[in-house]
Write a structure and sequence with these properties.
The protein is mostly helical. It contains 6 helices and no strands. Helix 2 (18-43) crosses helix 5, helix 2 crosses helix 6 and helix 4 (61-73) crosses helix 5. The longest helix has 26 residues, at 18-43. The protein is elongated, with a radius of gyration of 22 Å. It starts with a helix and ends in an 8-residue tail after the last helix. 8% of the residues are buried. The mean pLDDT is 85.
Length: 138
């Protein structure tokens, strides 16, 4: 346990900072997920790929079943105006965003950890300054 404590001391964190760091990490994660879904909804990457493929006249039965299953899972979104208008596009963009986030996870996960660390230190400095404590945060 001493090595872990030494590591956190070097980073300027204490045990009481970990809940804040966890919340920051989750907020950054939700922001990335929302941005990816919004991007995929607007850009429609699967249509870009489909344009480069040979044309087919109908979707495969598997694709029709998969799309129907995805729409069924997103029935709760019908309360929102965007989903009432274009539920199929919403479901496809969700799948695209999941694939996108999975492909960039080697970059985003360390980035989220770094951002959580830096934002936690920033908030710790502000908290200490408001209490009139000496800033001993690196």
């Amino acid at each position: 346990m001493g090595r872990v404590r030494d590591f956190f001391d070097q980073c300027g964190l204490e045990a009481r900072d970990l809940p804040l760091a966890f919340v920051i990490h989750e907020v950054v994660s939700v922001a990335i997920a929302t941005a990816a879904w919004s991007f995929c909804y607007a850009a429609q990457p699967s249509r870009l790929v489909a344009r480069s493929l040979p044309r087919t006249t109908t979707a495969s039965p598997w694709m029709q079943r998969t799309t129907a299953a995805a729409e069924a899972k997103l029935q709760w979104t019908k309360r929102f105006p965007l989903a009432k208008k274009n539920g199929k596009r919403l479901a496809v963009s969700l799948a695209e965003s999941i694939a996108l986030r999975a492909s960039i996870k080697p970059i985003t996960f360390p980035g989220k950890m770094w951002a959580s660390w830096k934002l936690t230190l920033l908030l710790k400095r502000k908290r200490n300054a408001s209490k009139g404590l000496k800033n001993e945060v690196p």
